């Protein structure tokens, strides 16, 4: 197999593996609070929000040490171990206990009958494990240095030792560079935007589905609407990601119009959710809520908002990844580590306060961060455009 074919093969395997893993994990996260709330009437007592807060809290901290771990054990084993932890978290729902539930959340960084619940989560666990096993199909790239016949085994051992030392050195350098990058003007401004993506990630991936499932006025379909909501969030993500991802290569207007579209779409979604759902929906008890919203709660409006949440999220994420890749194209690892750190820690905070805040307060927090995050993104994009127009190297500032 040629090097190009091997790279393409690895990309396909990675894509399929992550598709299986995150299909299972995101589905699990979307219904976690609803499932746990239905179990709290039994001997089990826990919170899906708290579980997800632990996951993203640990995930944010692990972003600082992940390069070092990968340098030591290699990317293939790292991804395989991570896949096992994802599968372990999902498997806990088959027969949950509070200690195992929260412990699995640390390692990871519906209201249906119990037999149905077990069937669903056994299937999700199997799907996740299939994706995990696929990592073993990844083929290592060919070594660029071909040993000659006159090279001794001592020379080979020396090269292996030097390679290991270089990997550790690179990991330490990336760790230090991440901290230095945190205090630069551009990264501080983009951190506000990134913080917003963490908050809205929490909302559409965990809170919004719980709100839909808690509204008794939706009738017998309230729980099935959670799955439908997840599908339309995914449709919005796919549409926005493919459209704006392709357009970004030939977009002479820059990234700001896409981000502006994203925040307008989200503000429309937040306003419709505010009108369509009762304020106590995120923290409603197992029996749900009979409270009234400002308008008659509509299933169609709820699903429309799901689509808008996914579309708006794709607008922000495609442009954030694009500008980070542009600003730090020569050494992007520390920049993306900071991006995931800020996003994950904000998602953890949002999952924590989701246990206590009513819906309108959660929407207000996102509106405030979304507004200032958009302004901060505009500022960085304008500066980048000005430096490019002058023919300067933006990365030098």
Automatic annotation (TrEMBL):
Q: Where in the cell is it found?
A: Membrane
GO cellular component terms, A-Z: membrane
Q: Is Transmembrane there in the keyword field?
A: yes
Could you list this entry's UniProt keywords, alphabetically sorted: Glycoprotein, Membrane, Transmembrane, Transmembrane helix
- InterPro entries in the cross-refs: Ion_channel_UNC-93, MFS_trans_sf, UNC-93-like_regulator
**Bilayer topology annotation:** Multi-pass membrane protein
Q: Which domain of life is it from?
A: Eukaryota
This one is known as UNC93-like protein MFSD11
Lineage runs: Eukaryota, Metazoa, Chordata, Craniata, Vertebrata
Name the gene for this chain: MFSD11
